[in-house]
Amino acid sequence: MLVAIDGPAGAGKSTVARAVADALGFTYLDTGAMYRCVGLRAQDPGFDPHGLDIAFDGDRVLLDGDDVSEAIRTPQAAQAASRVATDPAVRAALVARQRELIADGAWVAEGRDIGTVVAPDAEVKVWLTADPAERARRRGIPVDDLVERDERDAGREHAPMVAADDAVEVDTTGLTIDEVVAAIVALVPQRNEVQE
Ligand code: DC
Q1: For the chain, which has fewer Cβ within 10 Å, the N-terminal or C-terminal residue?
Q2: How many whole angstroms from 192 Cα to the centroid of ligand 1?
């Protein structure tokens, strides 16, 4: 069982996906954290995206055994992630790893291409959006920086950020986190079976 949540930066994906996973007892996968890890190492000599060991330990993100949970959250790391995410070799390596992770069990995975590329057969697909001004405010960054990243993510040749045809769009502008979480949980068939 997979709930795929895709959408642009600042739409609330991480907060919402984590809360949806908690509500359903599913495991949360933050694929953006994986691109951010690659972004941290992309300038290293001999860089090979297949050679990186990216792991999750609860809320912590480990890169080759080092805890990079804070280092990957800077605005610079976000832009570096968006840049390396245009590289097809990087995408192939991370998509393979993501498919391995979600192969067993029940997951809420969030990113840009979960419903389109990583798991086109996901049982539930959500496209989470919000107004650019509200998204920039939430991230504490200038609207121009956010729009630059959106345009790079949506305009790239390989696996551009786009809503899957069968995704349910949820616009979080002006909604509380609880309202968004409830709307997504209501889409999950397993949850309805449990309630019947
Ligand atoms: O969700 P985030 O802000 O942590 O993602 C950082 C960057 O990683 C984002 O600008 C584009 C890239 N990314 C991607 O291309 N595909 C994903 N599934 C997740 C993130």
Answers
A1: C
A2: 31
Residue matched to tokens 């393979």: 96
Confidence check: pLDDT of 55 > 50: yes
Contact by Cβ (8 Å): 45, 34: no
**Domains of the chain, each with CATH number or no CATH:** 2-195 (3.40.50.300)
Other CB atoms within 10 A of residue 150 CB = 17
Read off the pLDDT of each residue in 80-95 and give the average, rounded to a whole number: 96
Q: How far is the CA of 193 from the centre of ligand 1 (A)?
A: 33
Angle subtended by helix axes 13-24 and 177-185, to nearest 10: 50
Q: What token pair was written down for 142? A: 């200038």
The number of the ligand 1 atom at minimal distance from the alpha carbon of 6 is 18
Ligand 1, CB cutoff 6 Å, lining residues: 9, 31-32, 35-36, 78, 81-82, 85, 111-113, 149, 153
Separation of 105 CA from ligand 1 center, angstroms? 23
Q: What is the pLDDT of residues 126-154, one digit of tens each?
A: 999 999 999 999 999 999 999 999 999 99
